[in-house]
Specification:
The chain has 228 residues and is mainly α. It folds into two domains: 71 residues, ATP12-like, CATH 3.30.2180.10; 152 residues, ATP12 ATPase (ATP12-like fold, Orthogonal Bundle). 56% of the residues lie in helices and 5% in strands. The protein has a three-stranded antiparallel β-sheet. Strand 2 and strand 3 form a beta hairpin. Helix 4 crosses helix 5. The chain is elongated. It is found in: Mitochondrion. Keywords: Chaperone, Mitochondrion, Transit peptide. It comes from Hibiscus sabdariffa. InterPro entries: ATP12_ATP_synth-F1-assembly, ATP12_ATP_synth-F1-assembly_N, ATP12_ortho_dom_sf.
């Protein structure tokens, strides 16, 4: 039986109940390196190979990590949910309230990663709004929705309810939790944030220019504030 804990395909996080009682270390069977044991099971790599560590110190550190993650799993989950709930009240609820006032329909909020379907009323209201847009407006809404993974956020930007910074915070709500907890990865998170802002800003600039009857270099200089 594998010594790997089940992994969430959505987040890569360890999920499920602890299936072992004791974590120990031992010398590898060939006498070269060290292994981590979960009861009688030897810890394996994701590719199902026995995990062999070059030093006892590293093996001990990994063993402690397994103990920590399992014993504190409920606490970690509670902290994440509490953070998201607090941020939802602060960031998401005002947008949902706007959506109700805009369409007169309350959206269905899901707590599952997989989400679900919205009611026909909200779907029809959004469809009617989209049918009233011209080609350029529809292209901008589509581009923002693709970047944000949210039609609601896209419509919020389109109607002037959300600015770029506000939209970015909403889109990255859960990922920012990880950044606050573990720190920002340079060359990773910062590039993702910049790329997201550029995608949204590009669509906004395109939308704004599509509504103007003329254009000069002064207009081009003004758009730089979206990107820098």
């Amino acid at each position: 039986m594998s010594g790997m804990m089940p992994m969430s395909f959505m987040t890569g996080s360890i999920v499920g109940k602890r299936f072992y009682k004791k974590v120990t270390t031992r010398e590898s069977d060939d006498g070269v390196g060290w292994a981590v044991m979960l009861d009688y099971r030897t810890l394996e790599t994701p590719s199902k190979r026995l995990l062999k560590l070059p030093t006892l110190a590293l093996a001990k550190a990994i063993a402690v990590e397994w103990e920590y993650q399992s014993e504190n799993q409920n606490a970690v989950i509670s902290n994440i949910l509490a953070f998201i709930a607090a941020r939802q009240v602060e960031k998401v609820d005002p947008l949902l309230a706007w959506l109700i006032s805009e369409f007169g329909i309350k959206p269905i909020v899901y707590s599952s990663f997989f989400g679900g379907k919205q009611g026909e009323g909200l779907t029809m209201a959004a469809e009617n709004l989209l049918k009233k847009t011209n080609d350029c407006e529809l292209a901008a809404i589509d581009a923002i929705a693709a970047a944000a993974h949210s039609l609601v956020i896209s419509l919020g930007i389109f109607r002037g309810k959300l600015q770029i910074e506000e939209a970015t915070e909403l889109i990255r709500l859960e990922e920012d939790l990880q950044v606050e907890k573990w720190g920002l990865v340079e060359g990773g998170h910062d590039i993702d944030i910049a790329d997201l802002k550029v995608q949204i800003a590009s669509a906004i600039v395109f939308l704004g220019l599509s509504r103007r009857s003329s254009f000069d270099w002064g207009d081009l200089e003004a758009t730089k504030s979206f990107f820098y």
